[in-house]
Design brief:
There is one protein chain. By secondary structure, this protein is of the alpha/beta class. Helices cover 22% and strands 26% of the residues. The protein has one domain: Metallo-beta-lactamase, Chain A, CATH 3.60.15. It contains eight helices and 14 strands. The longest helix has 12 residues, at 199-210. The two termini are 12 Å apart.
Length: 257
């Protein structure tokens, strides 16, 4: 089978997977207005199936603006309840759990228990009280309210999407649950490269365990200033040179597998 699968990265963890007439959106998110990263208002149009990896604001806070009448959003309890509170209709939400398996067009999707990178209180405090925040206090209360209204509650999922004989692994955060046997040797893995000081070490260890053929880096960009930052991925790219192909796309950029 020689059908091509197209992968488009929009920023943060937001990715569209297209295979023929079938499409999936992963964690679609519009950058904050003061981010240098801009995204067209219609960037996520024409895709009626959305997978949510977890309930943090940069994964779900744009959903209300994206959902159309026929949109289906697949998510766990925490984002389900948050999205309901934010005005998304229950008819648009499909509650799933780790172990759920379902099909969307040509895609077959399996949800696995995931794990979020540990966010400790000291690192959060430093981020909130950083110089960048202090020098950019305009609108900070609204931003903090948006961030704190969306909780993960230890419900992070990973997805394996199978289509045209290929397997795509979508990590919700760059961490693995200890008790889960994840698929190895997938054709493509999404690595959200953000959330810890030792991010290169974490990513390298996961690659060693799962041995993906290709890695797509996501979430390394600065889409929700002043709390986010651009992460240098060069150490990981250098580490992976002889191990697997690593793609770092521009915003709106695509690759085919």
């Amino acid at each position: 089978m020689n059908e091509k699968i197209n992968i488009t990265w929009y920023g943060t963890a937001s990715v569209r997977i297209t295979a023929g007439s079938s499409q999936l959106l992963i964690d679609p998110f519009f950058p904050f207005p003061d981010s240098r990263i801009k995204l067209a208002a219609n960037a996520y149009d024409d895709c009626s199936h959305i997978l949510i990896s977890h309930g943090h604001f940069d994964h779900i806070s744009s959903i209300r603006d994206i959902v159309k009448k026929d949109t289906v959003v697949y998510c766990t309890k925490a984002p389900y309840h948050t999205l309901c509170k934010k005005g998304v209709k229950k008819r648009n939400l499909k509650l799933i759990t780790a172990g759920s398996s379902f099909s969307v067009g040509d895609f077959h999707i399996t949800a696995y228990k995931g794990k979020h990178i540990r966010l400790n209180a000291w690192d959060i405090l430093k981020a909130v009280c950083s110089r960048r925040v202090i020098y950019n206090l305009k609108g900070i209360t609204g931003k903090l309210k948006k961030i704190t209204s969306c909780l993960e509650k230890k419900e992070t999922l990973c997805y394996v999407v199978e289509v045209y004989g290929k397997r795509i692994l979508i990590l919700g955060s760059l961490a693995l649950a200890d008790d889960i046997d994840y698929p190895k040797g997938v054709d493509l893995a999404f690595f959200p490269y953000q959330g810890a000081k030792n991010i290169c070490e974490l990513a390298s260890n996961i690659c060693g365990k799962l041995a993906p053929k290709v890695v797509l880096l996501t979430h390394f960009d600065d889409t929700f200033p002043p709390f986010s930052s651009e992460i240098d991925t060069s150490d990981f790219e250098e580490h992976m040179k002889k191990r697997a192909k690593v793609y770092k796309l521009p915003h709106g950029g695509s690759l085919e597998i």
